[in-house]
Amino acid sequence: MAGDLFDVVSVRTSAASDEPQGLGNTTANVFAGSRLGLGKQLSRRTFLTVSAGLCSLAPNTGTDDPGVDATSFSDAIGGSLDYRFRHDAGASLSSDPATSAPLCTSASVERGFAPTPRQWGADLFKA
C-alpha cells in the first residue's frame, strides 16, 4: 500500500560560496541549484514524481519586491509519470526545466554544461 502523503521526499542541495557576500546573497547561494522532490504512488502501477528548484524562494535582494518570484518557481518545476504494464515493462512521460531555471539565472551556465530549453520525454522500457 502506498504511503499517506508522499512516498518519496528528496532534497538535493548545492554548495554555498565561501566568499563573504552578506546574508541575503548567502541565502540565495544556498538555494541556487537546490531542488526538492516529491513522489507519490497513485495506483498499483502508476507513480508520479515532481521536483522544483528552490532558488526562486530566496528573498529577492536588491529589488523593490523582496517576495517570491512565482514565474521562475513554476519554470523550475519538473516531473515524471511512470506506468508499469507488467513487472518487466513500462512507460514514462517526463519534463525537466531549462538548465538556467534551477540557478535562477539567464546568464551562461557553469563550465561544461550547454544551456538547454525545457526538455520533454516519452520512454518505453523493458527489463
Short recap of the structure:
By secondary structure, the protein is mainly β. The protein contains two helices and six strands.
Description:
By secondary structure, this protein is mainly beta. The chain has one domain (8-126). Helix content is 12%, strand content 36%. The chain has a 6-stranded antiparallel β-sheet. The radius of gyration is 17 Å and the shape is globular. It starts with 7 loop residues before the first strand and ends with a strand.
- N-to-C order of helices and strands: EHEEHEEE
Strand content: 35-45%
Radius of gyration: 17 Å
How would a crystallographer describe the biggest sheet?
6 strands, antiparallel
- The total domain count is 1
Number of strands: 6
Structural class: mainly beta
Uncertain spans: none
Query: How would you describe the shape?
Result: globular
Average pLDDT reading: 76
Distance from first to last alpha carbon: 23 Å
Give the spatial strand order of the biggest sheet. 1-2-3-4-5-6
What distinguishing features does this structure have?
single chain, 127 residues, mainly beta, 2 helices
